[in-house]
Amino acid sequence: MKRKLSLALVAAVLVVPMTASAALADPAEQLVNGTFDSGTDPWWWTGNAPASVVGGQLCAAIPAGTTNPWDAIIGQNAVKLQAGESYKLAFKASASTPVTIRANVQLAAPPYTQELSAAPALTAAQQSYSYTFTAAADTDAGQVAFQVGGSATAWTLCLDDISLQGGAPPPVYVPDTGPRVRVNQVGYLADGPKAATVVTEATTGLPWQLRSAAGTVVATGTTTPAGVDATSGQNVQTADFSSYRVKGAGYTLTADGETSVPFDIGVNAAYEKLRTDSLSWYYTQRSGIEILDSIAPGYGRAAGHLGVAPNQGDTDVPCQPGLCDYRLDVRGGWYDAGDHGKYVVNGGISVYQLLSTFERTKVAAGARADKLGDGSLRVPEHGNQVPDVLDEARWELEFMLRMQVPAGKPLAGMVHHKVHDAAWTGLPLDPAADPQPRELHAPSTAATLNLAATAAQGARLFQPYDKAFAAKLLAAAKTAYAAAVANPARYALVTDGTGGGAYDDDNVTDEFYWAAAELFISTGEKVYQDAVVASPWHTADVFRPEGFDWKFTATAGRLDLATVPNALADRARVRQSVVDGARGYLQTLRGNAYNIAYNPSNGKFDWGSNGLVVNNLAVIATAYDISGDTAFRDGVLTGMDYLLGRNALNQSYVTGYGERASHNQHSRMYAHQLNPALPNPPAGSLSGGPNSSIQDPVASKILAGCKPQFCYVDDIESWSTNEITINWNSALSFVASFLADQGEGGAVAKQPCTVTYTRVLDLGGVYIASVTVRNTSRQTLNDWALGFAYTGTQKVDLAVNGTATQTGASVKVKPWQSRLRPGESTTILLVGKVAWGPNAAPAVFTCG
Ligand SMILES: [Ca+2]
Ligand SMILES: [Ca+2]
Ligand SMILES: [Ca+2]
Question: What class of enzyme is it (predicted)?
Answer without folding.
Answer: hydrolase
